Amino acid sequence: MSITLKMKNIRKQFPGVIALDGVNIELLKGSVLALLGENGAGKSTLMKILAGVCPQDEGVIEIFGKEVKIDNVNVAKTNGISIIFQELSLSDNLTIAENIYANKEPTKYGLIDDKKLNEECKNYLVSLGIEMDPKILVSNLSIAQKQLVEIAKGLVTNPKIIIMDEPTSALSNKETELLFNIINKLKNEGKSIIYISHRMEELFKIADFVTVLRDGKYINTVKISDTSVDELISMMVGRDMLEIYPKRDFNYQDNDVVLELKNLTKKDYYHNISLALKKGEILGMYGLMGSGRTEIVKGIFGILKKDSGEIFIENQKVEINSSKDAINCGIAFVTENRKEEGLVLTSSVAENISSVRIESIINKFGFLSYQKETNLANHYIKKLNIKTPNFEQIVNNLSGGNQQKVVLSKWFEIKPKILILDEPTRGIDVGAKFEIYKFINELSKSGVGIILISSELPEVLNMADKILVINDKKVITKLDADKTNQEEIMTYITNKKEVNL
Ligand SMILES: Nc1ncnc2c1ncn2[C@@H]1O[C@H](COP(=O)(O)OP(=O)(O)OP(=O)(O)O)[C@@H](O)[C@H]1O
Ligand SMILES: [Mg+2]
Predict the structure, then answer these.
(1) The predicted structure's pLDDT at residue 360
(2) How far apart (Å, rounded) are the C-alpha atoms in residues 27 and 33?
(3) What is the pTM of this model?
């Protein structure tokens, strides 16, 4: 097989961080190379260099054996490189077709030919196996649908080298399969793909080779058929990891209900949701993307306000009309969409962590206590191993997974009675996941009631006490996590079997 791309001895430094140092990759024609490494290892930076977003300080890039200087995005494009970003880059106020064909729209008499644009787009999407109406505004799409449009946009220029940075973190199983079909088709056409994901099992389905980075350094490249999950993890973290889920050293037995919902309903969003969350309990919520699980918790948090039904906190009926009301009732909510709802990207790590608990760091004269804010930030930087040169770093400069850790810190710090976690470990590496799971366990041990939503079944099965299975905007059953398994849960979902609770 011929070599499509070589990156040799790449180095990149940011203020206070050496993001890459002596990194090499080799990409064969018609193959998939996975990049693997912990949060902040340098994967996205390496790909941004290749895509011309930020040039390297040192090192050489060769495409089909010829050295190229990729100092801007256009050079990358003319060399057939396309990047599908980790964070979505679509314009919300344009349609699917307008986004995919941005600046390449077919014209008629100098004007954009909308009819032709939509027809072409429709055929193109069908060729990829994506069923969507090109005329829909992107603002009306779910995160998963946006991700699919992003992928379609990245492929429309017929690139030779395609970079996918965590493309599946917002996709459900069905859509992930669709993506894998697209990748196999691209391989057969002789295209080369660089694939980044924290979901180890995906690499074994789709990658041919894996290159591992650690702390900006090149560790090794292995053939996927010659390696194992354990070997990859130990290359990534630099030590053997024996467990993925921490053992719980306690069994919380408190029958005090901290949160109770009675027939919570909002038309078209969630129906007749009843549940009781006990102190110190971890209640898992599992359902496919679009099943309504996020809508239910948004209902509790006052974002998608109920039409009818009742909410009780510690047996007191409460009215929650806004997220502020919810926070005042002792509820914290880590959303699935950190960019839109969780973070102020232009503020520092310290400011973000202290933002919801501002009263705790105001001193007796009413001024913000810099010292307290700093201590708080440093506490979490250490606890969750947030990779940042210091607490003053602007959050936008952190890697994707480290931004997620900042979001978690902020909500952990509010010391809530009830903590809602929606996909808390999305984009987080295995080592950090372990730390976060330990932290969730600690919170539950201290009596916090936790609702854990996840698309990863093993995560809910291993972390939760009870699991609510959500389908079609309803709770279809409640299971004991240690008495059920993946197969049983999937049967409930696919048969749409409903059970009287
Ligand atoms: N613009 C920037 N300014 C300063 N530091 C940066 C910038 N971009 C990245 N970094 C730092 O470079 C390092 C590598 O980040 P990068 O985004 O490449 O990691 P990653 O491997 O993609 O991690 P993740 O899995 O969390 O997405 C991190 O320490 C990050 O904070
Ligand atoms: Mg990244």
Answers:
(1) 57
(2) 6
(3) 0.84
